[in-house]
Amino acid sequence: MRRLAAEQDAVILAHNYQSPAIQDVADHVGDSLALSRIAAECTASTIVFAGVHFMAETAKLLSPGKRVLLPSPDAGCSLADSITADQLREWKAERPGAVVVSYVNTTAEVKAETDVCCTSSNAVEVVRSIPEDQEILFCPDQFLGFHVRRETGRDNIRVWLGECHVHAGIRPDRLIDAVHSNPGAELYVHPECGCTTSALWLAGTGELPAERTHVLSTGGMLEAARTTSATEVLVATEVGMLHQLRSANPGTEFRAVNPRAVCPYMKLTTPERLLSCLRTGTTEIDVAPEVADRARRAVQRMIAIGSARTGE
Length: 312
Known about the structure:
pyridine nucleotide biosynthesis; Rossmann fold; NadA; five-stranded mixed β-sheet; metal-binding; globular; alpha/beta; iron-sulfur
């Protein structure tokens, strides 16, 4: 497959939540923004993005001169779908003067209505770059939004009540059961999870081991996995992430808090679809220029804030 990609002057990018079969044939594996930045910096004229629709859009925003292909154009995202551009415009009209901070897990149309984007790893940094007396509209993920509000101590952050249905399904009771069944294990929790607030509260009360409870982006999980001395780590995020963690540290056992946390949209990309995409090139993603120009500014503003550490 890589030989065919090379013949097409294409680079294959795969998100951490793709199946192991897709990750193993990709040129690069990572989170959506890190991959989009790789797409912008690489010399290939064609980007094949094994992910979901908003990710391919973001790659196109940062690589307007390149062809971006999405093997599964029907691969949506429940989180990105939880707010539309019209809904965001209405919210902005209700709170004039507020700064809009949007997670990169949004459509290009929503990004175009956004002042600055963020990832799960730099959301706190992005919000802290905004004057403390400035009201903020944070969308669309409520769990990440409440995590940022807690970390910054700012009560002027208004949070849109959207969610990723997969991460929202990783509930506190399942988390507690997993920890009690695996004493001594470290715990990696993605801030999109429905159990994030509970995990931190339980760690504060002693119900969970505070020193072993870590709220991390997927990029942060990978960094932690490379250096951990733990023999076992429980992971609260989409199960595709386990493949990268296990590859990074074969000596540690990484186990899903919820083995059923599988994104059906991510799994739409199969080897057969990827091969067909490379052969035909018929699944190209584009963004209207008037939308792309505004959406690109929101992403670039994020990148300009500090080092703009990537990681969903």
